[in-house]
Amino acid sequence: MKRASLLILILLITLSFLNCGPQKVTEEIRQKCIPTLIQANVNDGSMIVVFKENGKSLKSGYNIYISEIPLVSNYSVNNLPDSIKPNNHPVFPGDTNPEDGIEHYDAEGLENGVVYYVSVRTVFTDRTLSKPSDELKVVCGPRGEIDLSVRYKSENDGFSFTKNGYVRADDIYNDFYLFTKDGIDFLASPNRLDGFLRTSKFRLLSGNSTIDEVIKNGISTGNPYNDKISITKGNLVQVLTADGHTALLQVDGFRGEGEDRQVNLKYAFTFRTSVPFF
Question: Could you read off the pLDDT of 22-31 as tens digits, one per residue?
Fold first, then answer.
């Protein structure tokens, strides 16, 4: 009797170990676990990859691929060559707020102006991969918000896109400045202050309400370029810099009068010259 009980105990322990081992990932599970709703929020040499998780079991995390060549069109199945490495190492387990089902992955050390192809795959507990998410075509570049003062009235009266920071209005790196005349606010090219300074050109964009919409929908037609442009709250302005780069400005508002006048601007900048792709 004791011998029979011992054999039963050994059998139960063996079955327990078998059930706790790596589970086989079925094709149905793979299909349910493909990440969706992928987005990339870019900035200066970095991006935040946002995506929705799918499937609630049998996963170790995610691999985020940021490649200079398209991957999804060439490797749409579950397998990838060993030579293709994810941006993350080790496996990205997910962010610190798993309850909302939306994951955020920070990628740094990227190069501005380079076209990257971004996709995500689920990593299962047996280290196999899901099929890829949709693939995004992304370019990093500075983004931000500035308060620009009237020319010569503060240290923040000019802004350089290439330096991604404030400069003086008559600085050799300045790209634009603010001035007010007869109650009208203008953005103007530094060469209007001195012919040896940089020349920028401006035009108003139509058909979009925010920088994000322009980036999503592409740059629409607008007024002809000029070396100065009158602005009001809500305007979207395309800037062509002396280097042939493109910036977008969103006029969010004004404060102060006379010498204390300031304009609040959101901006996005791309180092690409052939096609103004953000």
Answer: 445 566 666 7
